[in-house]
Amino acid sequence: MLIKVRKNGEVLFQVKSHLDGKTARAMRVYLGYAIDLGEKKILLDFSRVRNFEYNGMAMLVEALLQHRRSGRIEIGLQGLSKECFDAVVNLGF
Q1: SS3 of 60, please?
Q2: CA–CA–CA angle 58, 35, 43 (5° rounding)
Q3: Beta partners for residue 77, in sequence order
Q4: Which residues make Cβ contacts (< 8 Å) with residue 73, sequence separation at least 6?
């Protein structure tokens, strides 16, 4: 996973290769850090994800929904494959 802060203040999380439970747990921790530091915009880039485990995606979406419901942060997703998109939609994002 690569994390960048863009010029517009947005934090970009670039998910690489495989998304599983271990990756999702790490992302939850880093998302929490970014939010605790006062970041207001987070973008997750899935364009490099080649495969994923549904339970990993479910863990990640659950964390994203919790943060989004708090109203403190704007979260966006980009580069989703059809399979990732379908999973995210089915999980309620």
Answers
A1: helix
A2: 60
A3: 44
A4: 35, 39, 40, 41, 42, 67
Q: Is the pTM of this model over 0.70?
A: yes
CATH H-level, domain 2-90: superfamily = STAS domain (3.30.750.24)
Q: Which of 87, 41, 30, 33 is nearest to 68 (CA)?
A: 41
Residue 87 has pLDDT above 90, yes or no: yes
The Cα–Cα gap between 5 and 42 comes to 9
- Take residue 87 and report the two structure tokens written for it: 């999973």
Segments in the chain forming alpha helices (H):
21-36, 54-69, 82-90
- Provide CB contacts within 8 A for 74, sequence distance 6+: 40, 41, 42, 68
Instruction: Measure the CA–CA gap between 93 and 62, rounded to whole angstroms.
Output: 9
Beta bridge partners of 17: 49
Domain residue limits, the chain: 2-90
Query: Residue 79: what pLDDT?
Result: 94
